[in-house]
Amino acid sequence: MDLFVAIFAGTVIAATPLIFAALGELVVEKSGVLNLGVEGMMLMGAAFAFWAVIAGLPMPVAILAGGLAGAAASLLFGVLALTFLTNQYAAGLALAIFGSGVSAFLGRNFGSAPIDALKRIQVPVLSDIPVIGPMVFRFDPMVYFAIACFLVITWFLYRTKAGLILRTVGESPETAHAIGFPVIRIRYLAVLFGGLMAGLGGAYLSVAYTPLWVENMTAGKGWIALALVVFATWRPLRVLLGAWLFGGMTILQLQGQALGIAVPSELLSALPYLATIAVLVIISQNRQMLAQHFPASLAKPFRPAS
Amino acid sequence: MMRVAAPVIAVVLTLAVGSALFAALGYDPLATLHAFFVAPLSSVNGLSEWLLKASPLILIACGLAVGFRANVWNIGAEGQLIAGAIAACGVGLFYPNPESPMLLALMVLAGALAGMAWAAIPAFLRARMNTNEILVTLMLTYVATLLLSWLVHGPWRDPAGFNYPQTALLPAAAMFEPFDYAYRLNPSIFLTVVAVFLMWLFADRSFMGYKMSVSGAAPLAARYAGFRESSAVWIGLLAGGAAAGIAGMAEVAGPLGQLSPQISPGYGFAAIIVAFLGRLNAFGIVLGGLLMSLLFLGGEAIQMNLGLPSALTRIFQGILLFFLLATDFFIFYRLRRLPEHA
Amino acid sequence: MIPRLELRNICKSYPGVVANDDISLSIMPGEIHAVLGENGAGKSTLMKIIYGAAQADSGEIYCDGRLIAAHDPASSRALGIEMVYQHFALFESVTVVENIALSLPGRFDLDALAAQITDLSQRYGMPIDPRRRVHDLSVGERQRVEIVRCLLRSPKLLILDEPTSVLTPQAVVKLFETLRQLAAEGCSIVYISHKLDEVQELCDSATVLRNGRVTGTAKPKQTTSLELARMMVGSQLPEMHVSPAMPGETPVLEVRGLTAAPRDRYGVALEGVSFAVHGGEIVGLAGISGNGQAELVALLSGERTHADPDAIRIGGKPSAHLGAGQRRRLGMAFVPEERLGRGAVPPHALWQNAVLTGHRTGIVRNGLVDRGKAAAFAKGVIDRFKVKANGPQASAQSLSGGNLQKFIVGREIALAPKLFLVSQPTWGVDVGAAAFIRQTLVDLSRAGAAVLVVSEELDELFEICDRLLVICQGKVSPPLIRRQTNREEVGLLMTNRASGTKGKDLALQD
């Protein structure tokens, strides 16, 4: 039972950075833009948040700094993809490389010592309930914040006019422009939001999850977040479920290594990547499901006609 | 004309940002730029290293560009390079006759086939299972890295290697003999020369290359003309895989001589930028590769001489690609705006 | 009385084209005013300028006597100007009410809006269900959504751009009733069209454009068709020479019981399609867009294949399973409706676009492309079809729509096809070029080729075809002999209500 509780709690925590990054990318893609630079933005967020903590800033400020670093990085992509109409694949790759470089550069003096991680909340009374307490009421605030983000994003996309506009911009920017929506501005906002969320996800990794600095510490989580959005067929609830699935995979793999299962640890470490491929293949078989919520203009450059 | 201008402008802008960055870090920009870009080339050894590092970049970029021209996004060349290195090293270590004159050729073949096999997975998944190749090639890069790590920590670890995670050294017949033992440059560079020529012939003159450029520029037109999308996917990915696999072989049979957990300083990723710098064109790629190689060398040089972090290389790579993409816009959209018809 | 809208000396040019040259017109409240002109005469540009979707280079626009300075669609709507586009500004993936809510200011209350939509659409005799997704609607229903969207804002001026091009003759009657009702309530209507009979039936006054200039104004109801036509196309009306068909004995193209799933969720399924096209004749396929034409054309061209080889035979050979390249080897050539991106690769030069389908004519040897031969091929097409282009090195996207169409038609005809498929041959092509293309199709068929023309322009089909097929909801009618049928019969088949019901009921429906 204790093992189950530990695995459950570990899963929720491991999924949190993915939830941030993938929900952010979901909003970006819903507006018709594909930003492949999630990995770079997460690394920027991780590095800046860690830096802020070392510099003695309070934890909330540090996490916010991580988010803002991700947003700033996304702006580089935005200018290229939205103003300069470059190939979005190439611009995203450039951001991924750039972010990894900048974070490694910043991190050269961080040292290898861990920092004091983000404190967990112990909800009075509730956290003492057996089983339920540790499974639900003993997380750090970012875990709850990630779930709040999920709720707000779902409400925004499907219950507000602004969310409807965002979706229609993603379906047909030409039509949206003809109606008079500021397509480019809307897409900029979406890209910035995606950067902020990726930055928060990265910040969570470096100041709450690990909590220490390792170069390229995201280890592909940004790319997995991109895969999650496809896996979720562009629906927020499935992003959440998918992130938990991957969080679970990570934890099981770590547990397996800890238990000394007679399988090389490298092979276990490869599991999340292989699983990502597997779910992508499975979801790709159902073209109808992929098409249903797919933002039809995804990754197509749009230039408003004068 | 303009096709050439964009990369040149991008390079100049990157240098400008680089100077500003150095100045901001408290270094004399001119001296640092000199240390970064000029000093590494002012010795014979420097020139040898320059070509040695440019070779895999150009080779891989040629292979990748074949796919990029058809909108096939293989960004996992790093993994295919590792696969090629593993296979080539395996042949070199375990071939029954370690003195066979055929050994090098077999290793080239093994490297190419392993790179292709690693790339065949995303090719199959994209062509037959409709699965996005970007994410699959990237995930497989992580898997290849872990596979390499497992081999050198486990079954292939050199028993006489003081427990270092590395394989035994390759026998002499499994190594390219350097042109001069004072320097590391070796005949594997001719493989790159051949690749550049083949890339030019394929992309610029062949019907298959033409079909792939149609697939990339207008997929519906390719379908209209009856060109199969799946062959573009297969050729695009296998070309990149073969090139990266051979590059991996040349690394292990050249400067490395054995496998260790870190066999590539990111050639597979940098080659993506090289392909774009070269405008997906064979001769442009040669220039792009030389420039990128210089970035690697410069990064090492300033780390050694000035104590600046080598991560600057990756920052420069990113900035260079940013500027390249941005200058493209000004050149292509400002000068040849599509005529609009009422 | 102050005009509702007045334009003074509007000019607008795009690179290489003067779209509007010194255009002036004025429209009174409650007036239905036609802007008449051929494709490419500058009508759409003018409407965009009125609506604010494009800005004039010079000239003035007055609304109710007040000068409108720089404006955009939002400020136009604030002035009471609304526009129904030819290609609707609707989002497929969301519902009718959501679509309409997007363009309305104020609170985001879908329930209240849905009630309002139902109410208004009933009042004007064009009922729509606000909760349906747009991709489930027919083209006619989508047009209703557009009009209701405009009416909800109680417009003072309504612009309609070629509103009948997507409607059956019966639905046109219904639309005109709605428009007259609106005009009677004081709304001014700008009606853009190239169809003389409609303008004569509906409009109070007309401004005629040609090559971006005003060539005349008229009261259409008191002007003859011939006079209006002269103003539209100038003095030289092109003449067609259609000699009698000489169909061969065995069909070149034979389709038997072809059934297929929709190409995507917005598509239409084909059900038991059967017909044949013989050498020496032109067969036309009429129908409102979105009734399965896209699916049928893709299956015929080989862009989509079919599991049952016998469903399509080309020259007697089972072909439905063959790809586009293999079918071309059997003598097929094909001109798709999309020129840029399907019939031609936009950034590629014309010589490269010649290789696209001309590679079988000796341009490719030993797997290599002979650039000289490709250029010669392209040059031949440019000369023979009088394509206005800077030679074979010009990129496809640098050509105007009409010239690119001539190039593509020319390229396909240069392949000396036995079977020629062509979809929307003259869309967006100027009058002279359209006549030339039609004549080319007739000549090709009279020289022995089997020609299948898919078009939404009934006039065009009636002009050149020997036999007509009508497609509706994925089903194809039995063939009609052109000389023995008329527009009304075809119009009824287009809505699949040819038998049993009376015309009057029909008019009330779609």
UniProtKB/TrEMBL annotation, chain A:
It is found in: Cell membrane. CDD domains: TM_PBP1_transp_TpRbsC_like. InterPro entries: ABC_transp_permease (IPR001851). GO terms for molecular function: transmembrane transporter activity. It comes from Kumtagia ephedrae. This is ABC transporter permease. The lineage of its organism: Bacteria, Pseudomonadati, Pseudomonadota, Alphaproteobacteria, Hyphomicrobiales. The chain crosses the membrane at residues 6-28, 40-57, 63-82, 89-106, 142-158, 188-210, 222-246, 258-283. It comes from the Bacteria. It is a multi-pass membrane protein. The keyword Cytoplasm does not apply. GO terms for cellular component: plasma membrane. Keywords: Cell membrane, Membrane, Transmembrane, Transmembrane helix.
TrEMBL record, chain C:
The keyword Membrane applies. SUPFAM superfamilies: P-loop containing nucleoside triphosphate hydrolases. It comes from Kumtagia ephedrae. Keywords: ATP-binding, Cell membrane, Membrane, Nucleotide-binding, Repeat, Sugar transport, Translocase, Transport. InterPro entries: AAA+_ATPase, ABC_carbohydrate_import_ATPase, ABC_transporter-like_ATP-bd, ABC_transporter-like_CS, P-loop_NTPase. SMART domains: AAA (SM00382). GO terms for cellular component: plasma membrane. It is found in: Cell membrane. One of its GO terms (molecular function) is ATP hydrolysis activity. PANTHER family: CARBOHYDRATE TRANSPORT ATP-BINDING PROTEIN MG119-RELATED, GUANOSINE IMPORT ATP-BINDING PROTEIN NUPO. Residues 5-236, 253-498 form the ABC transporter domain. Belongs to the ABC transporter superfamily. It holds the Pfam family ABC_tran. The lineage of its organism: Bacteria, Pseudomonadati, Pseudomonadota, Alphaproteobacteria, Hyphomicrobiales. This is ABC transporter. It is a peripheral membrane protein.
